[in-house]
Amino acid sequence: MPFTDTIYALSSGALPAGVAVIRISGPATTEAITRLCGPLPRARSATLRTIRTRNGEPLDSGLVLYFPGPASFTGEDCCELQVHGGRAVVHAILEELAGVDGLRHAEAGEFSRRAFQNGKMDLVEVEGLADLIVAETEMQRRLALEHSGGGQSALYEGWARRLTHARAMIEAELDFADEDDVPGSVSASVWKDMAKLRGEIEEHIGQAGLAEIIRDGLKIVIAGEPNAGKSSLLNALAKRDVAIVTEIAGTTRDIISVDLSLAGFSVKLFDTAGLRETDEVVEREGIRRARETIGRADLVLLLSDNPARFFTGEAIPENVPIIKVATKIDRDDVSWLPSDADIFLSTKTGAGVADLLEALGSYLPDLAGKTSLSMPSRKRHVDCLRQASAALERSLSAEALGLDIQAEQLRVAGDALGRITGRVDVENLLDVIFSEFCIGK
Ligand SMILES: Nc1nc2c(ncn2[C@@H]2O[C@H](COP(=O)(O)OP(=O)(O)OP(=O)(O)O)[C@@H](O)[C@H]2O)c(=O)[nH]1
Ligand SMILES: [Mg+2]
């Protein structure tokens, strides 16, 4: 159903800026262009125009780009005005657009919503686009591009097509078994492919953890006894003075986190309160929060400035890897043996910090040789994939119940895949049947 409203908004970033891009989409786009910029420019080519008020007063001059629908981002008539990025300039142009009949300011995400509803993008591509806009690391960019560029959707659609094809074969066997053109026992090859498909989906689901690390970052928690040098290490890695450092044991109470980019990955580093028994109410709450954060860590850096006092208590879950870090090695009142810790560092002299970064790098996923980051990036995708896999499994194990029950589960699997992209398959099975065989000759 076409939208009646025409929407506009500033699509580029914070003002002031060298250039600002104002986007318009909807049926009254051409009217808005002619009102503000004179005769309609040639489609899809940048044209320099003066932008004027209804009284002919110039507001600015800039490039006008007109994209007639359906070959546009939203699928509707669209226009981009590239103007000078001053606050007053943009404000005046938006005011002028507000005065054109049928135009209103766009709501958040409304251009993309129209693109989805007009079939220009599917849900995975929309989500990928949102991720691409907020991507901060190289891996986040690559993952988002895989989704926004349609690579992921093509994979899911390919799987959905295989399911449809399998159902068509089964329907053929059920309905036209006595016809000569239907190869006998079609099912054997179908079930082989369905078993293979289930394996592919399961393998794909297995990549979800990696996608989570890329999207949300590897959670590294700095833990240890009070005064071990945890906050000093956070500041050293963040290269700024984020956390308070004092010689008083029990300085840090709240969880302090900083985001780092390490070898293209996002890393979230957490500084925590030193772990010890205490009656002090605020510190006790800090320690409770520290334990909670440690419980959700992907990796713990366990710090101590004394080999005899490495805290290895119950706070760290068994499956979480630990790097033991000896701190303040510049001091000569403590002597360390190589077996006492994994890394030896001093934030005062900077010694060992590079070793620690290298060690952290080895905990990042190894993507060597991976050219595409084809993996489910959201819980929503994983849920649908699990449903598809479970339905496939039910279909494969329902041999005794008959072909029609098996085919029904394949339909359920296909619908689950369709929900990921938002395009539930409504293909006519018979189309497939007739194109594969010449039944009905
Ligand atoms: N000599 C030396 N002193 C250090 C080093 N790193 C930290 N310190 C000192 O150790 C003391 C404690 O440092 P913090 O970083 O506050 O220790 P913390 O583990 O965060 O302490 P809490 O927050 O109380 O748990 C401060 O006086 C720091 O200046 C180092 O590499 N060498
Ligand atoms: Mg601290």
Commentary on this structure:
The chain contains 14 helices and twelve strands. With 441 residues, the protein is of the alpha/beta class. The chain has three domains: 6-106, Gyrase A, domain 2 (2-Layer Sandwich); 125-207 and 375-434, Four Helix Bundle (Hemerythrin (Met), subunit A) (Up-down Bundle); 214-361, P-loop containing nucleotide triphosphate hydrolases (Rossmann fold). The strands form two sheets. It has a six-stranded mixed β-sheet with strand order 3-4-5-2-1-6. Helix 6 (151-175) packs across helix 14. It is flat. The two termini are 38 Å apart. Residues 226-232, 245-247, 249-252, 273-274, 327-328, 330-331, 346-348 line the site of guanosine-5'-triphosphate.
